[in-house]
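Friendly challenge for the regulars: who can give me the structure tokens for this chain first? No prize, just bragging rights.
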Amino acid sequence: AAAGLSYVGAYVINTYKSYDNFLQDKYALLPAVIIICVAVVMFVIGLIGCCATFRESRVGLGLFLAIILVIFIAEVSAFVLGFVYREKVKTDVQSTMRSVFEQYDGKNPESTVVDYLQEQLHCCGVKNYSDWTTTQWFNSTRNNSVPLSCCQQDAKNCTGRLDQPQEL
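First reply, four minutes later:
Bragging rights claimed.
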């Protein structure tokens, strides 16, 4: 389990590099770091449990039980906090995404990240393609279209025009 958690934490940190323009807050990596720390602690606790079982030590098994109970309480607390603050996180991410979409010009690094995100997640805009109508890029191009990264992968002649929403 500790190895699996370590892999997940490292994967999240590695994936962060692709989306760091959207997650401007450096604390966004905190969950991944916590996951890796939990993996290390799990390994140590598992080692204590194995040693206590092998030696048939009542004190060691009691310590192991106490540690497991503390971890369970921490997990329940983390679940409750995640549930309580889910809307705040959603609002913060959407506002950050909107600000990155505002900086889109088709050439800058933020534009590359937006295009990559839309292609990888098969989406268009923050909520949908109509989000593009309020951006400076949309108003400056005056061609009533969204970036080509909004096009469906199977759409052959997609131009990103808003009068063809079935291709977006």
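The helical segments are 2-19, 30-55, 58-84, 86-102, 109-121, 136-141. The CA atoms of residues 50 and 168 lie 55 Å apart. Your move, everyone else.
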